[in-house]
């Protein structure tokens, strides 16, 4: 499964609707300091359900909304849509049949967050559920950030196990068992 494009609007420095395509052979995004490279990673993490403002380099969850500049007024809402190519049918379950999966999240200034899967409103959990076992989640290994390799090397066996279970595709079954036991 491949991330095909990100659509951003009102998110951090991306105030106007912007489409960032990811062609198949992309290896790097370069640009001057402050141009928004890390904001793109924050965008992916945010849509995947990141609920800690600190992990998005902010103080509160509404800090992801464009908060104005000398030339522009702040806006009232942030929206990000990730479009995945699922033509190889890597996702299991009801979404396996779609060649393209769109995942969208919006947030308004009053802190109301909404999630959408292929245009239909859903819960945060519906999104984390379908990506469990793919390596892409708000804290999963599809995104390797600064310091993460040394954290992995130094982690305790129990912490390391979480990553191995995700890579082996076991985490989604463990999550389901946990849910069933809590019912
Ligand atoms: P570097 O090369 O230094 O790592 P970068 O390309 O990764 O830079 P980012 O951290 O993605 O840069 O972007 C930082 C820019 O985003 C800053 O100019 C900051 O003012 C802007 N920014 C972050 N949050 C908001 C927000 N809520 N509203 C407006 N601008 C924002
Ligand atoms: Mg950066």
Automatic annotation (TrEMBL):
Domain RecF/RecN/SMC N-terminal: 3-138
Superkingdom of origin: Bacteria
Name used for this protein in its record: AAA family ATPase
Source species: Pleionea litopenaei
